[in-house]
Amino acid sequence: MVTNITNLGRSGLSDWLLQRASAIVLALYSLFLVGYLLLNPGLDYATWSGLFAQTWMRIFSLLAFVSLAAHAWVGLWTVTTDYLKPTGIRVATQFIIILAIFVFLVWGIQVLWGA
Amino acid sequence: MAGQESVYRAVNSKRPVNLDLSTIQFPLPALTSIVHRITGVILFIGLIFGFWALDASLSSPEGFAAVKDALAGNFLAKLIAWGLLSALAYHFVAGIKHLLMDVDIGVTLEGGIKKAQITVVASAVLIILAGVWVW
Question: Which pLDDT band, with edges at 50, 70 and 90, does A7 fall under?
């Protein structure tokens, strides 16, 4: 078994499953948002902020943001380990990616609950 | 481990190895796989715009109007929106292809080529539709 200390689940099978589960959440969230915007062409602020004031929408959004964090890390970890061979460059890039994921996650939570 | 040993043997063997990617002709399934990765990276970078738009649009009526005006009249904003929707459409379709392979659908040489062709056509249609939506 290949063990690695930088992948998310510490096992390839665990990463594989996480990537699928998070993909399904993200697919549903994307379909919902695109569908909502298509069905509401003359959208105004009150309706839009009303949607995000709903508890279920905040739960759905947070679930999507957490899934996004996991999905992005598993995906970008795979890409960086495949193409960035020098350890220093790879680890530095991965550090920046983790930092960016953390910023996006906190930003997302603030957007949902900050207003 | 036996597996590891066979890898060492393969790496250290004298057989000719061609690892110059520029000299290898990629079959369509390989290209669709690489584009899946590229669109993933693009989408990650594009999150900056996505979260900015979500943040601004929910912050105040003025912020909402700013995002709406940008998407209605700013060429660059439209281009970014179309680009990100296109990347999302492709990544989505190629992701569905992955899930189909996971449940053992079309896991043959012919099936792989056919699924790669469907991925290209389906995402091209979605990209055009996204362009119509944005403009």
Answer: confident
pLDDT on residue A4:
76
For residue B82, being part of any structural domain is answered with yes
Instruction: Indicate the number of domains in chain A.
Output: 1
pLDDT-based confidence at residue B1 (cuts at 50, 70, 90):
very low
| Distance between CA atoms of residues B99 and A21, nearest Å | 10
Domain containing A77: what range?
12-113
Report the C-alpha gap between B49 and A100 in whole angstroms: 13
Q: Identify the closest residue of chain A to B100 by CA–CA distance.
A: A20
The answer to whether A115 faces chain B, any CB pair under 8 Å, is yes
Determine, yes or no, domain membership for A3: no
Tell which residue, A43, A60, A35, has the closest CA to residue B57: A43
Distance from CA of B105 to the nearest CA of A (A): 16
Contacts of residue B114, Cβ cutoff 8 Å, sequence gap at least 6? B106
Give me the CATH number covering residue A57. Answer: 1.20.1300.10
**Cβ of B58 and A52 within 8 Å?**
yes
**In the structure encoding, which two tokens stand for residue B29, read together?**
């399934």
Asked if B134 is an interface residue toward chain A (Cβ–Cβ < 8 A), one would say: no
pLDDT at residue B93, as a whole number = 97
Given a cut of 80, whether residue B5 has pLDDT beyond it is no
Q: Is A13 near chain B, with CB under 8 Å?
A: no
